[in-house]
Amino acid sequence: MGVTYQVEMNAAIETVFRYVSEEDLMREWQCGFMENIYFHKLEGMKRKGATFVQRIHNGRKVEEYAGEIIAFHRPSFYGVRLESDYLTMEIFYRLIETEAGGTIVHFECIPTFNNWYTKAIRPFLHQSLRTMGRKQLEALKACLEQQWQGMPLESRV
C-alpha cells in the first residue's frame, strides 16, 4: 500500500518538473537533502536508468540510499527508487498542467520494508512517510510560490 498526496501549485509545469528532478533545485525545498553522487549521470531526456547514492542529513547523522531514476518523462512524470538495508521506496511525481497555467502535483511513495524490524513497525513508518511526503510537497509549494510571487504564470518557466 502506497502513500499518496496531491497539491496544486501556482507554477508552470516545466518549473515544477525541474524542482523535483534537478539536484541543485531539490536542495531548496527537500528537508535534509545533501547530494546525489552519480555512478553514471545521464543527460537530457535519457536520464532513466541513471544510478547514484543519495546522501540525506537526518538528525546528527548522514544516511545514504542507493538510488536509480526509474521514470523520466519531461515535463509530466518523474520517478526514483531509493534503497537502504531497511527500506526501499519508489517515489513518483505526476504533474498535470491546469487550465490557469499552474500545476497539480500527485506524489506517490511505495515503500517496501526490507527486514523484520521495519516490517514489525510498518504502521508507524507508513504514517511517517505520509507526513514526510505532505511536508515536502508543502515546502515545494511554498518555495515555488514565494519565488514567483507577483509574476505572471506564463513567465514562470
Domains (count): 1
Unreliable parts: none
Count of helical stretches? 4
How many strand units? 7
Radius of gyration: 16 Å
The CATH superfamily is START domain
The largest sheet has its strands arranged as 1-7-6-5-4-3-2
Summarize the structure.
This is Polyketide cyclase / dehydrase and lipid transport. The chain has 157 residues and is α+β, with helices and mostly antiparallel strands.
What does it look like?
This protein is of the alpha+beta class and 157 residues long. It has one domain: START domain (Alpha-D-Glucose-1,6-Bisphosphate, Chain A, domain 4). Helices cover 28% and strands 41% of the residues. A seven-stranded antiparallel beta sheet has the order 1-7-6-5-4-3-2. A hairpin with a 3-residue loop joins strand 5 and strand 6. It is globular, with a radius of gyration of 16 Å.
